[in-house]
Design a protein that fits this description.
Elements (H helix, E strand, L loop, with lengths): L2 H7 L12 H16 L4 E2 H15 L8 H6 L6 E5 L2 E2 L6 H6 L3 E4 L1 H9 L3 H13 L5 H8 L3 H4 L12 H9 L12 E2 L2 E2 L2 E5 L14 E5 H8 L3 E3 L5 E3 L8 H6 L20 H10 L8
Antiparallel strand pairs: 1-4, 2-3, 2-4, 5-6, 7-8, 9-10
Helix pairs in contact: 1-7, 2-3, 2-7
The protein binds zinc ion (ZN).
Zinc ion binds next to strand 8.
Length: 291
């Protein structure tokens, strides 16, 4: 089996569009370590805090222990864990991983393939990013995971191409205005600072339809993909209670949006579908919303 197929297998059990990025995050982190220091074992004590940060920032809203992927990725033939007692993981419990001085590394077959095949690391990383995270998050995520995208020459996946007309259709539907703040802007006749955001992420079968799109300015797009902002069933803007901003601009750009109706598309064009809003609310939005 091809390595990309084997990496794809780790998503198998995620059903119904539920996000399960724990193992992909560990793998991206391990690939970053591999870039820097080869396949030297990564002590759990060194990885714990960094994994925790990654899970907190890019995992789903519910808390997940870094012990979970560190232990469970061993079932996929991609990752090995050993302790002072010998090979084998002691389990997912933090205390056990700490006390047994567990350390993990990529499976030697995978490490060999990565060394022999230039570009494989980039392809695996690209696959993991595309399959699990909204594109606006890829760069920051790699930075936090310690993965050097330029060295890895990450090449876009050609298998599943996006519809290039999605952006134009969504921007036109919203009359080239941010659906949250009404920002609009043009530079020499070309629209600037506006994106077409997927409500249900493309990685989770979100279609390239206006009914799954929102025209958002760059800052609101980022905050929407990070779960700071969301939509209610009535298409009002939700702001996470976990977001804190003390400046006037944070108040103006974020906090003041809570409860305001999102802009509707032009008459006759599709509003965002309820199912997609529900997916975003459960999988991305950082509950609870502000009152
Ligand atoms: Zn905006």
């Amino acid at each position: 089996m091809d390595w990309i197929e084997r990496v794809a297998e780790i998503r198998r059990w995620s059903r119904g569009g539920e996000r399960a990025p724990h193992k992909p995050l560990l793998l991206l982190y391990a690939l970053g370590r591999f870039q820097r220091q080869g396949n030297r074992p990564i002590p759990f004590s060194a990885a714990e805090a960094e994994l925790k940060k990654l899970l907190k920032e890019y995992g789903p809203s519910r808390d997940t222990s870094p012990g979970y992927p560190f232990h469970h990725l061993t079932n996929d033939g991609l990752w090995l864990v050993e302790t002072v007692h010998g090979p084998g993981s002691p389990g997912a419990e933090l205390s056990r991983l700490r006390e047994s001085q567990a350390a993990g590394r990529l499976h030697p077959d995978l490490a060999r393939a990565l060394s022999e095949e230039p570009g494989l690391l980039g392809r695996i990383a690209r696959y993991l990013l595309d399959a699990n995270f909204a594109p606006s998050l890829h760069q920051d995520l790699c930075l936090l995971a310690g993965l050097d995208l330029e060295t890895a020459e990450i090449i876009p996946d050609v298998k599943k191409r996006r519809d290039p007309r999605f952006r134009d259709r969504v921007l036109m539907a919203y009359e080239y205005c941010c659906a949250f703040c009404s920002y609009d802007g043009w530079l020499d006749g070309a629209v600037v600072g506006l994106d077409a955001a997927h409500v249900r992420w493309w990685a989770f079968d979100g279609p390239d339809d206006v009914a799954n799109g929102l025209c958002l300015c760059a800052i609101h797009h980022k905050l929407f993909d990070k779960g700071v902002l969301g939509l209610t069933g009535e298409r009002a803007i939700a702001v996470s209670a976990r977001f804190v901003g003390r400046s006037q601009s944070a108040r103006d750009m974020v906090l003041s949006l809570a409860g305001r109706p999102a802009r509707s598309p032009q008459p006759g064009l599709d509003e965002v579908e309820r199912d997609h809003i529900d997916w975003h609310r459960h999988q991305v939005f950082r509950t609870p919303p502000r009152g």
